Amino acid sequence: MKLKVCGMKYQDNIKAVAALQPDYLGFIFYEKSARNFDIDSIPNISEAIIKTGVFVNETIDNIMDNISKFKFKAVQLHGNESPEFCRELKEVFKTNNPNKTLEIIKVFSIKNDFNFEGLKPYEVVCDYFLFDTKGPLPGGNGYTFDWNILKSYPSTKPFFLSGGIGLEEVEKLNEFIQSEASKYCYAIDVNSQFEDAPGLKNSDKLKAFKTHKFLSAQDVQKS
Ligand SMILES: O=C(O)c1ccccc1N[C@@H]1O[C@H](COP(=O)(O)O)[C@@H](O)[C@H]1O
Predict the structure, then answer these.
(1) What does the pLDDT look like over 38-78, one tens digit per residue?
(2) What EC number(s) does the entry state (predicted)?
(3) How large is the ipTM?
């Protein structure tokens, strides 16, 4: 199971968290967020960590500018981006970077129920889905949704599990990962529950979380 740490903001903190070797590090570009990444540069971190730009209903031009500026290898689309938008973003990226690939992670927010039919048009235009909790904010609401809803997940597209995950969820996560609902769960995404202040992650808490490897039945078979 991969780990994505999202909502990074401070240079020294980015280096400290990168030293823990998460698989993905996320940077949020949303002015209304306390985690908005309004800094000019990201310090040098391991190439193995997939730097991810998080956008909410942003224009393709702005997303592309930030991809070039910060060398993002993935984007997380956290608004109402259409399948056509995802397709166009992939095409524009390919045209400008013929030898590179861009991972597109499309976010869907879940409250009490979810209509999985809505995923279908996105299947061919994005690489991963991310399931977050629906709340008053586009993201970073800080609480979990009922993961049992994912028992009805009809797709084989790998997904990120997100929304309010913290150290308190370790036991629940272990149960989830052993269940059928997690069959296509590719990564766990954490954010506000590992912070001392918005955008400032607590390395000790992350280290403690990382010691739980969250191996699924499939992972165990593979190893
Ligand atoms: O965290 C934010 O402020 C934010 C703002 C706009 C879009 C996304 C945002 N965060 C993303 O929300 C999920 C879940 O966060 P949490 O665990 O509930 O705090 C995560 O992917 C963040 O990237």
Answers:
(1) 999 999 999 999 999 999 999 999 999 999 999 999 999 99
(2) 5.3.1.24
(3) 0.98
CA distance 200 to 195: 5
**Residue 46 is which amino acid?**
S
Contact in structure between 148 and 160 (CB atoms under 8 Å): no
Q: Where are the domains of the chain?
A: 2-222
pTM as predicted: 0.95
User: Which residue among 2, 35, 145 has the greatest number of ligand 1 atoms within 8 angstroms of its CB, and so is best to mutate?
Assistant: 35
> What is d(CA 4, CA 187) in angstroms, rounded to the nearest whole number?
7
Give me the residues paired with residue 31 across strands: none
Q: Which atom of ligand 1 is nearest to the CA of 160?
A: 21
Q: For residues 181 and 147, is the Cβ–Cβ distance under 8 A?
A: yes
- Is 2-222 CATH 3.30.70.580? no
